[in-house]
Amino acid sequence: MPPPPSALTASAAASSFLRSLPPPNLPAHATLRPNPSLRRSAGHSRVVARASASGAAGAEAETVFFDGGAHYGDLAANLVLGLTLLWLPLTLASVSRALLLRYRFTSRRVTVISGLSGDDRTDFPYSSVREVVVVPRFIGEWGDIVITLKDGTKVDLRSVPRFREVADYCRKMAAAEGGLVAR
């Protein structure tokens, strides 16, 4: 049995195939210009699409309902409690949440952005939401939101400010798209 092709030979074969494709047939007067509806996000190699009024029919602009990180009260309470060595691991987790985590709820999707440079990004549409559960923290000032997706995945959003409003908005959007399971 022959050995499997290495990644180097596979990428070489793919690049030779792509180089062998003929250029598209363009009229002589056509020039290639960048698409104004696409933009690169600053510092990242991803391309972010922007909805425009002249775009596809029925496409409405994506509006942001909530965009923010963990509640500042969670960080403050954990820093005070971190003076005891017993609470120190929870304090470090709170600091990392405050520095590295952002939540964005828009009219189309839920986005969780994490990591030092924000490259670790998770998006899911409201149509994939099966259940939304809230857990209040510190006398209800902030809370956790647990979103269960249709495939059984649980997304845990910790220390969300205005968590009741955000959870209600998520439930409303999921019900509008037919994703939320009625109980």
From TrEMBL:
Q: Which InterPro entries match?
A: YdbS-like_PH
Transmembrane stretches in the record are 75-100
Q: Which UniProt keywords apply?
A: Membrane, Transmembrane, Transmembrane helix
Looking at the record, the residues that make up the YdbS-like PH domain are: 102-170
Q: Does the keyword Nuclease apply?
A: no
- Which residue intervals make up region (Disordered)? 25-44
Q: Which residues form the signal peptide?
A: none
Give the protein's recorded name: YdbS-like PH domain-containing protein
What's the source species for this entry?
Answer: Triticum aestivum
